[in-house]
Specification:
299 residues, alpha+beta, 34% helix, binds zinc ion
Length: 299
């Protein structure tokens, strides 16, 4: 019998008796779309997929208004890795690097690396940013540590990606409530972690979500919430490109027009959308800067 895989979906679930909540993300079409946009070396592609799955995973248990992004920068061969999931379940991501990349591609050994999680309405400046400690070999263990510390809730995170799928599983121990037997809760968390640890990367990548949850936790009382669908999507727009050009300043915009036969072309790295600006467009967008920068005098 052929299994029909559910592609690009986020499942939230509760292991009620154990007092554990969980999120499972499985990406197929969306991941292949993003992974296929550059000729990523396999270890970097795996890291990008893991980060993309994590971006979606981390939206599972929060009230998100805007987007959640995971951004990693370093002074080494891996220059940038960026993945994002919006409140509408739209995903995008990319990485920039120089060959050769170190092998293995270990987070803890990236020079001058910084990893940030940013949540909120980024354009409106309403955002929260947290820095992830990178003394860990991979994104899963770095995030596990981040969550255990920032939310004071023990967390277990698994992430995996190959050329076909990117998958993430996150479990969090819910805070002890009054009346519960603390020792029993601790045992339950240990039991759930052991069950989860039996899951190999291949099984995580190859198994459909409901099947996977059943296989792992069928002896726990598991409640599944309505799944949410995810998809590739880019939030670029002509307006955003205009404000990027404005931020470069008149001199640079004019120099580019000069060098490019009177036309500026900007191609979005996430989705390959093309934006072009001729001299008239450029003059128009620069004149907006001028107005905005003129101090307003009280009447
Ligand atoms: Zn775009």
């Amino acid at each position: 019998m052929e299994t029909v895989f559910v592609e690009d979906v986020l499942h939230r679930f509760l292991l009620e008796r154990a007092g554990v909540r969980g999120v499972l993300v499985r990406l197929g079409v969306a991941w292949r779309d993003i992974a296929g946009r550059a000729d990523y070396p396999a270890p970097l592609r795996a890291m990008l997929g893991q980060s993309l799955a994590a971006s979606a995973l981390l939206t599972g248990n929060i009230k998100l208004d805007g987007s959640l992004s995971v951004e990693l920068k370093s002074a080494g061969a891996l220059r940038l890795l960026f993945t994002e999931c919006t409140d509408q379940g739209r995903l995008r991501g990319l990485a920039r690097w120089n060959d050769p990349l170190p092998e293995p591609l270990d987070l803890a050994s990236l020079p001058a690396a910084v990893m940030a999680i940013t949540i909120g309405q980024i354009e409106r400046g309403q955002r929260y940013q947290g820095l992830v400690d990178l003394q860990h070999p991979d994104i899963a263990s770095a995030l596990e540590n981040y969550f255990s510390q920032s939310e004071q809730l023990p967390a277990k995170i698994l992430l995996a990606a190959d050329g076909e799928h990117a998958v993430g599983l996150m479990l969090q121990k819910l805070p002890d409530e009054g009346g519960h037997d603390a020792v029993e809760d601790e045992d339950a968390w240990t039991r759930i972690q052991h069950l989860t640890a039996t899951l190999g990367t291949e099984e995580l990548l190859a198994t459909a979500p409901e099947q996977l949850l059943y296989r792992l936790y069928h002896e726990e009382s598991i409640s599944l919430f309505e799944p949410r669908s995810l998809a590739f999507g880019c939030s670029c727009s002509r307006e955003r490109v205009e404000s990027m050009l404005r931020s470069l300043g008149r001199d640079e915009v004019e120099a580019t027009l000069q060098a490019r036969d009177g036309e500026i072309e900007v191609i979005c790295e996430f989705c390959a959308q093309r934006y072009t600006f001729d001299r008239i467009d450029a003059e128009h967008l620069l004149s907006i800067t001028h107005k905005a920068e003129t101090p307003t005098t009280p009447q």
